[in-house]
Design goal:
By secondary structure, this protein is an alpha+beta fold. It contains ten helices and eleven strands.
Length: 340
Amino acid sequence: MAFNKELVEKAAKEYKIRSVDSDFAIVEKLLKRAVTVLGSLNAHIKPSDVKIYLHGSYANKTNTYFPSKLEVAVELGRTLDYDPDDYPNLGFRVHNNYFVETTYEFNPSEFAQLLFMTLQEMTGGVCTLGDRFIEFGKGEIEGVGTIKHAVEILPCFTFKHREKNQKMVIVDETLQKQEGRDMIVSLGVLYFDSAVSSHIVTFPKLHASNGHGKDLATAGNFLRLTRLFKTLNTIGFREADFLKTRGYFVQCLLFNVPNDIFLLPNSRQGEPNGDELRTIFFKILNYLLYCDMENFVCQNLVWQLFGKAEEFWTLEEAKAFVKNIKILHDTFPSGRTELA
């Protein structure tokens, strides 16, 4: 029992789907119209301060054979009361490096509600408002076109997350002295999650840029193996009743694996074949089975990966995920070549 090399190649493959671009163009057109309407009704919303962009698996090239939702951010850069460049900004207060309390009447929660109501009116009520996202199912959207992917729209504010950093100056090999404080500024976005009744800061652009850097450092194997592990995660969930793990957590887990483990022996260049992918897979799996994961970080390099808050992954869940991947491999029909 083991993963067939042909199956591994399919699971690690980058799937370029034409309908992603066409669907995004349709959704972007709709959102621009909605933002224009909101700009005429609410002084806090200036359409020129709104950015609409793709994020998530399709943007980061971690989408797999199994279809994903199209993830689109609608990011408002500033309001009449709020400017992300202001510091300190007493209207937003961060606690636990993650949750944000606000005294602003117009905030990401209000922005999400207004955008949702406007989209409902424009599309005949075909969208829904979930805990974090405005959601459209695949199919026709009145007045703009037909989409082939379900869509999750994240209304959010631009947010600059600041942390004090003790600056250390080396005097000689044995002595260091403190000299003032530096400020680390991380560019993120702030959204409202009704499931935890709180605003939350996250860092999709840092996540993407750090992932791109690691992929370059590993000859493209970081993203290949991320897609492989995400595919196995889906197969295990569908066929073996494993707990489904968010793709974000899977990618962050692999981000913490040292770069050299992703590389082929003898510095061979080029895309790895199925046997070579299996070799890299085993190296990563063995590392994760026996390493100390307690201090693993998120791919954004701002947060620790594990925590106690509802939105965080736990160390126990991560260990269970790795063990389940091992079980799936050990029990998988070696002759199977199809993903589904």
